[in-house]
Every structure is written in C-alpha cells, then in structure tokens.
Design brief:
With about 210 residues, the protein is mainly α. Helices cover about 60% and strands about 5% of the residues. It has a two-stranded antiparallel sheet. Helix 2 packs across helix 6, helix 2 runs antiparallel to helix 10 and helix 8 runs antiparallel to helix 10. The protein is globular. The protein binds zinc ion. Zinc ion binds next to helix 2 and helix 6.
Length: about 210
C-alpha cells in the first residue's frame, strides 16, 4: 500500500491537531523506508517477476525487521524516541510510533498472506497474515484511493483538501502500472531497483503530505 497509508496520518492529525505534520508523514511510511534500505543492504528479501509489473506478483519472502507486528513494533520505539527528543515533546514520539504501527495494520488487507506477526528470524516459525486485496488489482486501486479520500474529507483542514486529494491522485496514478499492468514487463526488474523506486515514492509522499496539510 502507498498513499492509502496517509489515511492513518490524516486520522492521527485530526485526533491530535497540535502534532507536527512531518513526523507523522514519515511515520506512516517508516516501515517501507526501512524495508527499502534493508533490501538494498541484502538483509531483507523480495522477489520481483521481471515479466510482470503487478503488485500481486511481488514476493515478500523475508522482511521481519521492517514488516512484522511485534519485532518491527519494538524496533520502531527507537526512532520514536529520537523524534520525541528532537521535538522535545514525548507525544511526538508516541504519534510517530502509532503512525508506524498503522502501516502494518493497513498493509494487512492488501498484502497476500506474507506479513509476519512475530518477526521470527530465519528458521523460526511465524504466523503470516494478509487478506490479498492485491489479487483483485482494479478493486484494490479504487479502494486505496477511496480510503485516503474519505478519511481526508472527514478530517483534513478545508484549505488543505484540494492539495491533499489532487496530490494523492497524482501519486496513486504514477503507481497505476502495478495495479493495471500497462507494461508487459516489470519496469524495475530487480529487487534493488524496486526497493529504490519504493524509497523515492515515499520520499515524494512525505513531501506532498507535509506541504499539503496546512
Ligand atoms: Zn509496507
């Protein structure tokens, strides 16, 4: 999931409007930022089918540090502490942690059954969840945008709405090939390039959301 994660950011900022926007915008992207760094470093593993661009063909074979409920939730306490200290406000740390954990929760409906619950390392038995909406890609495309748009409509400051809805639509449209398969091949081709694209996509989303939510 990509821009759909910003539904959680909007909900968090509506519940606690005094929260600075940047840490929340980073938080909901955090697991994928960590993931792209760990894939580049060869610590976590993903398989990309070079002949198919669809999201449902990506195999997330190992990502316990970035995408498990328990281990990632525990590891995320560190950046949360960092943000709390940097802003001199413990709530910012709590909000960061909640935003980062929301990422896993919102990944559950779309991912195939590959999201680890515990985050056991190599060889350890784990439980995996995922409801697999990505295997119905057209529906997944609509649901992801609708989720963000509905939450934004309900929560965002009026003056921010157009920037939020239009920016989300643009970023979501840039990601459309992974839902509709316009190209025959996967343009990224390799795990590292796929991870680099995800990193760039989330940096763009952080900038968009932080600037638009005013
Ligand atoms: Zn993710």
């Amino acid at each position: 999931m990509y821009i759909g994660h910003y539904a959680a950011a909007a909900a968090l900022l509506a519940l606690a409007p005094e929260t600075p926007v940047l840490p929340v915008a980073v938080a909901v992207a955090w697991p994928d930022i960590v993931w792209s760094a760990l894939v580049a470093a060869g610590v976590e593993e993903v398989r990309v089918d070079p002949k198919n661009p669809l999201q449902s063909t990506i195999r997330f074979t190992s990502y316990p540090f970035s995408h498990s409920l328990l281990l990632s939730g525990a590891l995320t306490l560190l950046p949360a502490l960092g943000f709390g200290l940097a802003y001199g406000n413990p709530w910012v740390g709590v909000a960061f942690w909640l935003g980062a954990v929301s990422h896993w929760l919102l990944d559950v409906p779309v991912h195939l059954k590959d999201l680890p619950v515990l985050g056991r390392l190599r060889g350890g038995k784990d439980r995996f969840v995922g409801w697999g909406l990505w295997s119905r890609p057209r529906l997944a495309f609509v649901v992801e945008y609708a989720l963000f748009a509905l939450v934004a409509l309900a929560t965002a400051p009026r003056s921010a709405l157009i920037g939020l809805l239009a920016g989300a639509l643009l970023l979501h449209a840039l990601n459309a090939n992974s839902f509709f398969g316009f190209t025959k091949a996967n343009p990224t081709g390799t795990p590292r390039r796929y991870a680099a694209l995800a990193f760039g996509g989330f940096v763009a989303a952080i900038a968009w959301f932080t600037l638009a939510w005013q």
